[in-house]
Amino acid sequence: MIARASGGGGLAAALTVLSGWAFDVPILRRIVPGQPPMVVLTAIGILMLATALLLGTGSGASRPVRRAGRWIAAAAAAVGIGGILQYLLPLPVRLDDWVQRLAFGPLKPGSGMALATAASIAAVAVGLLFQDAPRRWLRDLGTLATLWGFVIAAAGVLGYAYGLGALHQAGPFSRMALVTAVTLGVLAVGALFSRPTRPWIAPVLCAGEAGSPTRHLLPAVVVAPLVLGWLQLQAVRSDLIEAETGTALLMAVLTLWLAALVVRVARNIDRRAVAERRLRETLHGMNEALERRVAARTQELAEAQDALVQAQKMEAIGQLTGGVAHDFNNLLTIIRSSTDFLRRPDLPEERRRRYLDAVSDTVERAAKLTAQLLAFARRQALKPAVFDAGERIRGIAQMLDSLTGARIRIVTTLAEGPCAVRADPVQFETALVNLAVNARDAMNGEGTLTIELTCGRPKPSIRGHAGSPSPFVAVSVSDTGSGIVKEQLTRIFEPFFTTKEVGKGTGLGLSQVIGFAKQSGGDVDVASVVGRGSTFTLYLPQAEAGIGGEKPAPEPEGQALEDGDQCILVVEDNVEIGRFCTQILHDLGYSTVLTQTAEAALAEIEAVPFRFDAVFSDVVMPGMGGIELAKRLRALHPEMPVVLTSGYSHVLAGNDAHGFEFVRKPYSAEEVRKVLREAVAAKPKVRPAPTET
Fold first, then answer.
1. Which of 49, 63, 345, 493 is deepest in the core (most CB within 10 A)?
2. CA-to-CA distance for 330 and 341, rounded, in angstroms?
């Protein structure tokens, strides 16, 4: 704004003077009555400076416009340099006189462009020419040149204001008109303020802490000495005071004036420091209050979150308890009704067998339900083994054909080589069956079921859990069914949560899948698009083929005992279950010894060595547990088979069965017979060979 106003003022002054010379109007040549006129060459130089200033400071000026402004500034610099050269070199023709003749007529003797005028025009033109130079030292040179042009013009103005002949009647200022000095000073100020980021201008125009005091102090520092100096000269010329006295008074007044300014600045600084200190104290208090509020709010949020988590836990426990109670009450209803009918003495044999079969089937269903719950809780006792996942999928594919129906096409895509997995093969097959059943129901019995096996894949991040770069075997089960809505994806693995109709699903299939995967060191990922189907990917740690497989049993030495006359040591702390177990073993043809603690079992074995063919022990017992007993027997009597049994044990859940045979409760007589026969066959007790007499 200042630059454009300065340029407009300079342009108006130059055009006014040129009009005065063109139309021979003396008042227009000098503007200020009674003062020397501005010559034509000076007016042309000022016109060029004003035009260059306007073109270089226009808002949104294009590059060609700015380039034109620089060319005009170069022409103004040439005018100023030409005016200087006519004083330095003995030229036959004066430039100002030649230009004056073109516009009006010859210059009068003693008139023309002053040397100070030419120097000021050249300096301001150089400043305009270098104000946008690419190099910083050129820009700084342009600023210094503009300041020099302003100092020359200001000296001329002061010469007229103070009546000093040396600054407007002699030397280089002998021909500088008042209107010329004022106009050049205005153009120099406009050139300085045209680039507000320059070091000399930024403190004056900035809106920060330095701008306000600078704008307040500059008028006092600049105007006061000028006014006091003018008053001192007028007093001396009027013979009111002598020159020495006036100079002393001027120095004293200026000293007091500057001291007052220093005191004022110091007071302002002190007030600002006090205000800043109070502000810091206030901010510190506010910060402490904010920290207290944040801490209190954080505590409230933590308590609210704990309450929410507790409520969610109680809701989950309630849902789980309700589902378990519902299913077990249904099973207990069948068992109780069957036992009531079995008590009737006149019950026909056919119906008796039917009720016995119902009780047996119900027990199997209850055991399966318990196994699914333990699988979800990752607390089931697994029997891991290294097997080829591709072979298992090929073996189960035919069974899935009959399970899913004829209208569902099953496509299997297996890896070229073997994909070894270390996991429980029975639980692995159960997980695939559960996924296939869910896919069948999602497709309403018609569509395509794809099972894809991939080896060596890293496990990605699933549901916020970190991934793993280790190799995993990925089994993907995809369907073309209805898909799962986004709101239900986070709940599908919850036990007893199902999207199926009442009576068509228990909501435990996916719970078994994710529990088995997590307990085996893997995970399950799911991707679904509503209307296009779902893909469940089961990740299991990959193993090297042949590592951890079953080792063949060593051949026994000597003659093995017959199946009959075998004795089993039963270790069970529950008396009723112990008696029931010994009865089963008696019915199977075994003789038994029952102990209620592991310590008593060790005493029986140490008392009569080679008496027992196997040990059948519970896991959870007071004192020494079944696993510790088995490990102790493995160290003391490695030839003695040990079979463990339990309904649930966190030790078994975390570390498999520690290499021992295992039977889950509730067990049947057939399961006990089979596992004991295999255990005794693997490590048969041998008799020493008869010696010859």
1. 49
2. 17
